[in-house]
Records
---
Amino acid sequence: MLQINDPLGTLFELKSTPQRIISLVPSLTETLYDLGLEDKIIGITKFCVHPVHFKSTKKIIGGTKKVHYEKIRLLKPDFIIASKEENTEEIVLELQKICPVWVTNIATVADVLQTISDFGQLFNCRTEARKWNDKIAYSFEEFKSFSHNAPVRKAVYFIWKNPYMVAGTGTFIDELMQLNKFENCFRNQNRYPEVDLEVLKKEHEPEVVLLSSEPFPFKDEDAFEIGRFTHHAKTVFVDGEMFSWYGTRLHQSFRYFKQLQEKL
């Protein structure tokens, strides 16, 4: 029997390896696939866009904030992957009536490595988990060496419009901003605060404005509007998946960050 705690401290006692997995976390759906678990994944959200073919081969059970409980029951899962950030407590409590629900809580690179290691134990794919952790750790160290002498730049990372929202402290995005030598203008505010553009100009004066491709797809007109409220900050459109998708995607992120640093 495997005894293991999830990041929230819930104890799991598994007599056998789960064979029917539902993932409510897009980046972890990709991670499960990379760990060789495609045949065990039976349900995903509509936001689980990687790998692409899952849209036609796996059952869509709703989104991350609104799931179809009856669809999930009919799939007869024996294990569900959720996220403290992306899925509500109400959803988790309801799904626990169906089967065990593992709730992840990822805000750092170390959390990513631990999650992959946990999956290696949970789904009996320890060798693949070690391989991926080794690749990520190597890419991480390589990027730190590459960016060692990069200048520190004050930056703001926009994730939403109407209202404007940015990434604050306690987020995975903030962790990756720090690794890129971006001093987060909103490091003193928690999670994803709303932002008044007038305040941005008067109190923060960013050198770099990062506009994400997701969850809101910022366009040129948004860059122009936000730019009017900065003192000649450089605006950069960034791939939101590289900054916010934790899991095996992190291996790609460090290569992407090298290209980003060269642009600046």
---
Amino acid sequence: MGKISQGVLGGFSGKVGNIVGGTWKGIDYMRIKPSNVSNPRTQGQVDQRTKFSKVLNFLQPMTEFLRVGYKLYANKMTQFNSAMSYQLQNTITGAYPDFSIDYTKVLVSKGALLRAEGGVGVSTEAGVVQLSWTDNSASGGAKATDKALIMLYNADKKVAVYDTAGAVRTAGTQSLSVPVDFSGDEIQAYLGFISEDGTEVANSVYVGAITVA
């Protein structure tokens, strides 16, 4: 039986279904293990396992990015697990067995820094995606030196392309190279900011779905 230590979305130890919790160096972690099909399953257990797997598969390609994007929300929890908790609460839509992720509600970075405004993404050249945004560095604690956090996610290929130290806020634009086999694929684009010293992070904004040239 699993033991929850910090509320329903906090750390837990033991096993709940095929979700295993534990602590390593004082940090709570979660992992999923293959189910034993002979185990009895309630519909609630099946729903939760399916949601967990859906979010896990979505986030795994961007693990390194989330270590930056959720660095301020990893209190006794890894950054990855903090991101897992947020997406499980806020982004799952549909009903079993057809759960899906609402990409418009995803946060790949989380914090109190002023978020991006006017984000737009386009791809007019093969292998290149360009994001642009409004320079709002004169507002609400934002600084000209804040750096862009950019995430491009290809759901069909389950590949993430990202930059955790991109162009400064005042630049208003940045291009990222993507694999050549992305051509014709739709990708989901997100834009956040991190302060130059790394102590502040902004909530990401959903820029939109972009078809790669």
